[in-house]
Amino acid sequence: MPTPSHRAGEPVRAGIPEHGRVPRYYAVKTLLLALIEELGEGVALPSERELAERFEVSRVTFRQAVSELVLEGRLVRRQGSGTFVAPPKLVQPLALVSYTEGMRSQGVEPSRYLVTSEYMAADERLAADLGIEPGDPALHIERVLLADSERIGLESTYLSARRFPDLLSVFDPATSLYAYLTQQVGIVLAHAEERVETVLATPREALLIGTNPAVPMLLLHRLTRDDAGVPVERVRSLYRGDRFSFVTQLNL
User: Fold this and answer.
1) Which end of the chain, N or C, is more open, meaning fewer C-beta atoms within 10 Å of its C-beta?
2) Contacts for 40-43 with beta carbons within 8 Å, 24 or more apart?
3) Does residue 133 form part of some domain?
4) Which InterPro entries match (predicted)?
5) Parallel, antiparallel or unpaired: strands 244-247 and 90-93
6) Residue 251 pLDDT exceeds 60
7) pLDDT digits (tens, 9 = 90+) for 66-89
8) What is the reported pTM?
């Protein structure tokens, strides 16, 4: 098969094990990455047969390389049409900004649709996070997140029902909760603690988001406080790892 380029910084350089032997599927993956750069977003790959012959590998090896690139969000399969170069991942800043702000800053139109809107009794952990007593009423709003009508995430938000008694009846779940809290309620969001981890979606989550359960997900836990240090919300956000990435700025 053709020899992958070994220029510093290229994927195959980072993927070479100490013994120097590169798995054949990984070499194919590197060649496909170069091809993806040449083709550009939305362009279909040549046929599996053609590329397997060009790279001098079996179709099984070729499919393994393609499958990894699909999971990573570099390629997308379309039933009955073929495999295409995926669009760039969406980027959300790890900062105290809303999902709406993050998407619109990239020229993407955000939207949401409601899955769950309910009152619930806070367990000990939720009560501690929200600064209320165990058993006190809490609000739970669960929404699917969309970007240009594409489902990319699932968000669950928890708030104190006593602090926001009218929220479920007056808040439009298709809009930004941060905008409602700041503009309509007068809350000043001042501080947030956020933790990010990788997980696999549950069958229910995968169905709601419309993704393959095998695709890695990015899970964010956020606890937001107002300018008096009082907890405002606890949020659990699940994003498709093949369509989303996060960015932050670090300063000394």
Assistant:
1) C
2) 40/85, 41/85, 41/86, 41/87, 41/88, 42/84, 42/85, 42/87, 43/84, 43/85
3) yes
4) Bact_HTH_transcr_reg, Chorismate_lyase_/UTRA_dom_sf, Tscrpt_reg_HTH_GntR, UTRA, WH-like_DNA-bd_sf, WH_DNA-bd_sf
5) parallel
6) yes
7) 988 988 889 988 888 899 998 888
8) 0.77
Q: Match 């994003």 to its residue by tokens.
A: 239
Sequence-ordered strand ranges (E) for the chain: 75-78, 82-85, 90-93, 110-121, 137-147, 150-160, 189-200, 216-226, 231-240, 244-247
Domains in the chain, number: 2
In sequence order, the 6+-apart residues with CB closer than 8 A to the CB of 199 are: 216, 217, 219, 238
Is residue 8 helix, strand or coil?
coil
Q: Which residue has the tokens 């298709």?
A: 174
Please say whether the beta carbons of 136 and 100 come within 8 A: no
Within this chain, do residues 110 and 79 fall inside the same structural domain, yes or no?
no
Q: What is the CATH number of the domain that holds 113?
A: 3.40.1410.10
- Estimate to the nearest angstrom the gap between the alpha carbon of 58 and the chain centroid: 33
Domain-ending residue, one of 34, 66, 85: 85
